Amino acid sequence: MSNDEWVNKDVRVPDGSYLASSHETPGAERALLFDRESGNNLGPAEVRDPESQSDSDKAIRDAILIAVGAAVTFVAVKAPEMKRGLDEKVLPAIKAKWTAFRSRKSDSPATKTDDEPSNTVTRPHLAVVKDEDAAA
After folding, report:
1. Maximum Cα–Cα distance across the chain
2. Nearest to 30 by CA among 2, 52, 9, 51
3. In contact, 59 and 71? CB cutoff 8 Å
4. What does the DSSP assignment read for 65-114?
5. Distances (CA, A) of 109 to 28, 29, 95, 96, 106
6. Which of 6, 12, 36, 115 could cross-link with 46 by S-S, CB 3.0 to 4.6 Å?
7. CB 35 within 8 A of CB 17
8. CA nearest to 31, candidates 7, 4, 1
9. Where are stretches of biased composition, namely Basic and acidic residues (predicted)?
10. 71-120: per-residue pLDDT in tens?
11. Kind and range of the H or E element at 134?
């Protein structure tokens, strides 16, 4: 039995690379990087002690965990109420607006009527007269 001991370390493995497998210890990896596409040796990986994270790194990690937990809790508690609001208020309002938009869209193209003079175009909000009639 050797005096070797296992040490817990964080190893940085960049995208597109992988750690070499150990030939001596099954399931273990060596801190040696290889390129995924070419298989070329990229050199040793960066290794750090997990306890060496700065206080600001830990504070950021903790804040993110708290924010995610709060968001999940909020959604879990408010989901039924939010769905009810969508079903009762938002969706009917969207349907009403869409229906009004579609009916306005079908009525809005300019149309010429048979009983009007040829120089007049009928629109729901505006009557247009050609310049030659306005001058007369």
Report:
1. 114
2. 9
3. no
4. HHHHHHHHHHHHHHHHHHHHHIIIIIHHHHHHHHHHHHHHHHH-S-B--T
5. 73, 72, 23, 21, 7
6. 12
7. yes
8. 7
9. 46-56, 104-115
10. 988 888 888 888 888 888 889 999 999 888 888 876 655 554 555 555 55
11. helix 131-135
